[in-house]
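Team,

Forwarding the record for the chain on the shared tracking sheet. I've put the sequence and predicted structure together so nobody has to dig through attachments.
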Amino acid sequence: MADVSDTLPPGTSGPHGNTPHESPGHPPSNPKERTGTAVTGELALPRKGSSLRENAPRRQVSWAPGGERRPAGATAASGELAGLLRTLAIRRSGVLMVHASLRGSGLRDTEVRDALLDVLGPAGTLVVPAFTQENSRTSRAHRALTRGLGERERAEYEASMPPYEPVTSPCRDSMGVLAECVRTSPGAVRSAHPQTSMAGIGPRAAELLDGHDPCCLLGERSPLARLYEAGAQVLLLRVGFGVCSAFHLAEYRTDPPRPRRTYECVVGEKGNWTSYEDTALDDSGFAALGGELPRKLVESGELAGREVTLVEMRPAVDFARDRMSGYRQ
């Protein structure tokens, strides 16, 4: 979800991602540069001060690992995950966008990444949201970091905010460890949006993530639109539909169109706040919307005590668009 305003979602690859949290009151630290991550797209935001204008039952699957042999170092949880992924209808050589929470699962981020790539095969592409929601004056993440600061302290904090750097800027903690693992994997690419970037691994990653318009959070000029056209699937791994970023694309396609609003972020250099206009996004109804999806579109299972859901992106977005537009099916 795109947490760049007080109406936006927590921007998660999983709302309970188990990475360390930034310390409130201090700018996010600059990570050491990592190799292996390519950048797609270029930032071109204006300088500060300007703005741009009948259902069948859901298929239930489960996996109880038996006595199968696992590679050295593999955990019991990784065997459970591999078994579950084999039973879900994930398309081999397809495109898969994943939101995940690994907290309490006993799984390592690298285990999950490798299991997903294995089920997709060498021709498949794995994509994750890699959002940086703190890079916004109105996001919940930014407000949490500046809570309790006086006016002068807040001004100093915002003046010291580093710009988004696609290669080095880490995902926000709430995105979960899988998102950061994918972003920093050798050969990964990342889109260029300073707030709602996506990262991917696979032969179609560059094609799908390139050209992310810096003035379009998650709409027609973002990777979401290309994932939709590619017939991507969405895997919610131990998280619910409340964090399903694909539904944001539906917000851009409603009839009548949704209102627009101004967003702000730091680009180019430290403290260089700039603004642009885009659709006013709101994820507050996403969880309920997911519950209304036709059951033929949804396949579910369980991993480490929490639900796992696989959904076809294109019909799910179309359904969400119609619901948001007030149409009933």
